[in-house]
Amino acid sequence: MCVCVTFIAIVDGAITTVALPSIARSFQLTTAALDGVVVVYPVCLAMAIPASAWLVERFGAKRVLLTALGAFLGSSLLCGAAADLAQLVAFRAVQGLSAGLLFPAASSLLYSTFNSWEQVRISRYMIVPQQMAPAVAPILGGLLVDHLSWRWVFYVNLPLGVPAMVFGAVFLAEHRGHRPGRFDLPGLLLSAAALGSVMFGVCEGPNRGWSSPAVVTALVLGAFLLAAAVLFELRTAEPLLRLRLFADRLFRDTNLINLVGLVPILGAMYLGPLFLQQGQGRSALESGTSTFPEAFGVLLTVQIVGVLYSRVGPRIIIGSGLAMVSGVLLLFATCDQDTGLWTFRTYMFLLGIGMGGVFMPTTVASLATVSRKDLAQASTLNTVVRQTGGAFAPAAVTTALVLSTPTAAAADPPITAYQHAYLALAALAAATSLFAFTLPDGPARAAARRTTASGGTARQGRRHEEAH
């Protein structure tokens, strides 16, 4: 259930870009006029996330997950049937709001069901949609647009989502934390406005220019609202976002690694297709098949990480993974006009091996010292951090390309610009790796060892309590 939900939501966020030229022709518009179709999704997603933890605690993870999935599928159907641009943007907004509830609800349900050792095992499966979806989306989108129509990039959610929803309604067990207090409406308004403004500024900065009035206004306003939201939430007895969880060093440090470490990792995934298609003049199909090996590298590493996690701990695994990411990015920085596709594919596979040592252990370790009643809140904060880091990645890459490109060639960055961008990402990954080696992972190792030795006794006891 959670694998399908994650796969659908990630694919939907990436696949729409492929259909933009076809949508523009259908509505007799320019592709530039469709910017809102792409930007409204992450903006609304970010705005919905703060409310997810309260909703999960109030109504239960199962109910929130199924309701959000139903709204997501319904808005997908409406997006595919949209008669004009205004309708499409409005229905994409609903999709984004629904996705903002899907991710935290799915995470909360998973991590409240399984103990630390089981979470490591489950993460081997959860990594599949997280890695396969971004790689599959461009290829799937191209096939749907070429052989059916752009409307099928939205309709395709239904064949996967409807069976998942039926399965969840029949087989999922309900899990709730403690009953929440009064709904924190001021906290929602402040945090949603702050995250939405920051996300808009970060997403639009590379397109409109970082000095454009709209981008500057969004970023300044977002920073002001974010500071106000933090101050308000820290002084509220029952906050919508339980920021006091960041007082736990392990939770705080793993989230900081996620925030900063995602920039070079996802930045490399964003930069690869640009280098192949714009720098080398390759086709979209060549680009898609050349970035795809990264997923196989991740899937291979995560199986090994699952075995080593309780033995060596997340600190060494995460630090080593980021160090390898940095080293592979240095290899990418040597690529030029004559670099062959198989060389590039080999580097992508190696990049995936390094990435596999980062995603799963940071997520599992971040929740190792969080009490069960705070899991919904912790999952929400994790999602906020990951979405923010994911938004910064393309912005950082585009900025690095612009700074390395002569003004006269702004529309066509030279090969050296891509090399400099890879070097910048490598430096950021190296710095994050050094920080990761300071991670206080003793509690995470202890939790994994306890649950491994118990053979699942804790989980069985918890389920017995919940049954009564």
Describe the structure.
- With 468 residues, the protein is mainly alpha-helical.
- Helix content is 80%, strand content 0%.
- The protein is built from 19 helices and no strands.
- The protein has helices at residues 2-27, 35-59, 61-80, 85-113, 116-147, 152-155, 157-171, 185-208, 213-234, 249-279, 284-291, 293-312, 314-332, 341-355, 359-366, 375-403, 415-436, 442-454, 457-467.
- Helix 8 (185-208) packs antiparallel against helix 9.
- The longest helix has 32 residues, at 116-147.
- It is globular and about 60 Å long.
- The two termini are 25 Å apart.
Give a brief rundown of this model.
By secondary structure, this protein is an all-alpha fold. The protein has helices at 2-27, 35-59, 61-80, 85-113, 116-147, 152-155, 157-171, 185-208, 213-234, 249-279, 284-291, 293-312, 314-332, 341-355, 359-366, 375-403, 415-436, 442-454, 457-467.
Tell me the structural class.
mainly alpha
Low-pLDDT parts are: 456-468
Mean pLDDT level: 79
Fraction in helix? over 70%
What is the overall silhouette?
globular
Which range does the strand content fall in? under 5%
Write the element-wise H/E pattern from the N-terminal end onward: HHHHHHHHHHHHHHHHHHH
Distance between the termini: 25 Å
CA-based gyration radius:
22 Å
Record field, number of beta strands:
0
The total count of helices amounts to 19
Query: Main β-sheet, in a few words?
Result: none
